[in-house]
User: Fold these one by one.
Assistant:
Number 1:
Amino acid sequence: MSSKFDSNAATLSRFVMSQTNDHDLVILLNALAISCKLITSAVQRAGVAKLYGLAGEVNSTGDDQKKLDVLSNDMMINALIHSGVCSILVSEENEEPIVVPPAYSGKFCVAFDPLDGSSNIDCNVSVGTIFSVYERKPGSHGSVDDLLRSGAHCICAGYVVYSSAVELVFTFRGGDVHGFCLDSTIGEFVHTREKMMFPADGGKRIYSCNEGNAVHWDAPIQEAVEYFKTAEQPYTARYVGSMVADIHRTILYGGIYLYPADAKAKKGKLRLLYEGIPMAMIIEQAGGIASTGMFEGKIQRVLDLTPNEIHAKCPIIMGGKRDVQVVYDQYAKHGVNV
Ligand code: P6P
């Protein structure tokens, strides 16, 4: 009978160490993991510690900052600065980039949303952390320019979903997508999912979007969602309102997540550097498609976009090939080259 204890726990650190000779990267992922463990503690004790409610400030997105937004942001910034391997940080919660003091400066540049979906936090709905990692350009001491590059230059990306379980999903550029569940008995993220992939047959027919915006969508998006509702094999609607939860379900079960550009938000709502690019890398490397839908006159791949500023927005159409193709077919009916 196998023991309940694993004498050979496959932790995140060990996984990263097995995938790279760059020990600074191992240090970085450890710092990210520590900050997400701290965020886990804060999120799970929010009610007891009276951390619900507003902090009284507004973030770069114009959202009212929650107390947990501010706390989670401080946890990530401090962990990354003191890792000694970062030189510039970009957070959704900070209008300006954070320049790491020279004494702690290193080669990585990290963009993150420390607590994505935090409008859900006071009612205990799942929230998440999303991050993308770049390396300084040769000769750079770390500046915003190191981050204002397309997803082709992103070296790794990940998210953490704080839900019934806490799970970190991570991938290196060009690599497989792996899942690590937080084992609270040892305080470590333990490798639980090898090579996460969309279901080969497209999986469950689930569409995920905020239909409250439907009147503002362009016709192809409206027609695609109408198709999802009326197809011979009808789809189910699932929308948590936390991108991390919706994307995590989409990869594991199948389906499509849409936050398109629309008449009132020509660039969509989500942020390219710390939502679009990291999620697009994960989605593509899990066998899906990460598109902008119609954006600036053409259908684009999210990873091909270059942010012109650290809080640049991008439309998002992400999901399995079967379901994204439904959107593409509608654009094609309107004469759009896909
Ligand atoms: P809406 C949360 O604010 C977020 O950035 C994503 O996590 C989520 O998918 C989306 O915005 C929800 O936006 O407009 O539907 O509330």
Number 2:
Amino acid sequence: GLSAPLAGIRALVTSGPTHEPIDPVRFIANRSSGRQGHAIAAALARRGATTLLVSGPTVEPDPAGVEVKHIETAEEMWAACRNGLPADVAVCAAAVADWRPALAAGEKIKKAKGKAPPAIALTENPDILAGLSAAGNGRPRLVIGFAAETEKLVENATAKRLAKGCDWILANDVSPGTGTFGGLDNLVHLVSAAGVEDWPRMSKQQVAEELADRIAAELKRAS
Ligand code: C5P
């Protein structure tokens, strides 16, 4: 119907940063607020989608009508996403840490006089967007990612869409001064096989509404 264009649709959304432990009290993280991903999950749920939000640590409240799985690390996020399949649409808005400490120390790393600072060896995290895009039979019909870029925005996003194997990339300009990362507004370009659409600057809330409408139209068209 008009009020629930996504009724019967299962949606999976990732949001927020991940925390990668160095030891029991320290971690590597990033400045993602989770605002965009949470808004997308809320917008999909409002349109009737059965929505699972897999979220890293954030101060954003759990959106109404959304099942929320709280995780900390990229590996936990990937496991929760796999468990969340099957889904018709996946939106990867999380700022997943590219690397994690290869070995998280079991005890707090102690500082001592004369002791050299510890070296933290890093290892690569799973790429959740690429993993969902390559999920074979279990692949969501529509897989959407974000590309935060500071230069050659559309060029890099177009390459990223192909490299990740996803259907759409929302390219956003996170250059210093745009206030995008951690801010309220977003300036995005929708990159798909059909080409590039420039969206006007709008709030992350409005980006979520617009994207949810586009998802509903696409799933209807392709069904
Ligand atoms: O490679 P890059 O981090 O620039 O790609 C960004 C997109 O990939 C975002 O949609 C992000 O959620 C997703 N991503 C992911 N898992 C990773 C790294 C990025 O899902 N390990």
Number 3:
Amino acid sequence: TDPAVIRNFCIIAHIDHGKSTLADRMLQSTGVVQPRDMKAQYLDRMDIERERGITIKSQAVRMPWSLNGTDFALNMIDTPGHVDFTYEVSRSLAACEGAILLVDAAQGIEAQTLANLYLAMENDLAIIPVLNKIDLPSADPDRYAAEIAGLIGCEPEDILRVSGKTGVGVEELLDRVVEAIPAPTGNPDAPARAMIFDSVYDTYRGVVTYVRVVDGKLSPREKIRMMSTGATHELLEIGVSSPEPKPSKGLSVGEVGYLITGVKDVRQSKVGDTVTGAGNPAQEQIGGYEDPKPMVFSGLYPIDGSDYPVLRDALDKLKLNDAALVYEPETSVALGFGFRVGFLGLLHLEIIRERLEREFNLDLISTAPNVVYEVTKEDKTVVTVTNPSEFPEGKINEVAEPMASATIIVPSEFIGSVMELCQGKRGQMKGMDYLSEERVEIRYWIPLAEIVFDFFDLLKSRTKGYASLDWKADGEQTSDLVKVDILLQGETVDAFSSITHKDNAYAYGVMMTGKLKELIPRQQYEVPIQAAIGSRIIARENIRAIRKDVLSKCYGGDISRKRKLLEKQKEGKKRMKMVGRVEVPQEAFIAALSSD
Ligand code: GDP
Ligand code: MG
């Protein structure tokens, strides 16, 4: 295809602002999906995505569109909508020359959309601003047009008004894509270079890799090379999705499509990497490649210990489709055999856990998630801590924690409560801008550990649900951080150790000892539950002794009943965990970890 008739674009939108619905309508308007084949959210293939209404994996679709007698090929590249997948969003944007900025005309722009808009502007993408859902009675397009015009520096009249639901304005939008977005440019005679913007594992076909060709041409059956690793593969198939995969004779400058090499693991075909021809390789990679970096770690354990091999196989399978998922085996006194797993963020954690439970039929318990700390010991050696139990004993020089830049958009009446919340979470204010008279953008530099857990829920509840949040990892700072251990009769219960700021250590200790006191049954002797920082005890509870004799209920007589009771008691013991001398039912640990 001649690059002059290609247009590559993506849709930037907040969750629920109507991206999938609009994409569906475009597929219909361009005729690539027949009305009888249309099912809602055609492109959202995965069940979890469909149920949660979020898009995890991006995809590209090629659509024909004619304007003034010329036939164009529009490539729509779907971007993931959630903050945990920022790097994937950035690669999707890098594959495009333009972006549709889609904003719900009853809601206005939200923080994540704003962050992605800035990312698109930094990448010099042409921006097409669009107000969606204008059919809604509550839509207020004039008000939000002014806001968007102020942000991107256009006239409010230039902003298109559409409804993905009724189809109003969608054809004008497709015309605008052709007119406003530049055609791709690149050197057709240079050695081939294509950027990977997505990589998906398919049970039948192996890894399907989505690429945008920058220079040269990729042809079927040639040998290709991944520039980050130098690994070579044979191209078994190359083609475009429209939206079903269609093999083609190759992909040339500006084209977007998929390739299949028979590799079985997305780690061999990584988002951001450059594909070149092995015969005549390019010298320089396309910029912007990064390895995915897990930000949040948590221990995952099967509730039934005999499920451990199933969990291991399940993680091995999910890893094929998720280059950001890392894990290694871990054992815990309280929870048995499991894995320490690294995630991009909390949503990523939830998605993986849900898939493990749903697709592999596992019952899991996870330990409280933590971020990654760099601990410098007195002898200057540095330890990277992904698990509180690895926190070094003895004298410590300093502890560095990861930080985040957070952007919050709220109605101005909530500025006070947002600032109070951020300050309480050790944030430093970096700036504030009014988007309009009623809405502000507030920026904070804040510890990642404070933001990745309950922050968003607290923010929502303090702002009646109006606030939106975006964050990205941004450097680190040294802080007064300590490890709090929870001890049962002097023995540390590993799953409950936590790294917290000094000022929060006492509250954590009181909360955890109190909870365990309620959950652990009384024993034959008194059991102290303590919270400690090193050897210093900061909180304590006692479980009082009880003399439990199951046989005393039977008044001597019935032997078979006695035997039954004894057997029952033995069975109960199987699910008991020994912490030192103390017997604890595993349910107690699970309950302590799962509530709140
Ligand atoms: P996404 O999360 O951005 O992909 O949003 P969806 O396309 O899933 O839409 C979110 C919700 O908004 C769904 O309930 C849609 O039916 C609804 N919706 C999407 N577009 C429109 C529209 O133009 N008008 C109205 N009234 N509702 C819409
Ligand atoms: Mg969607």
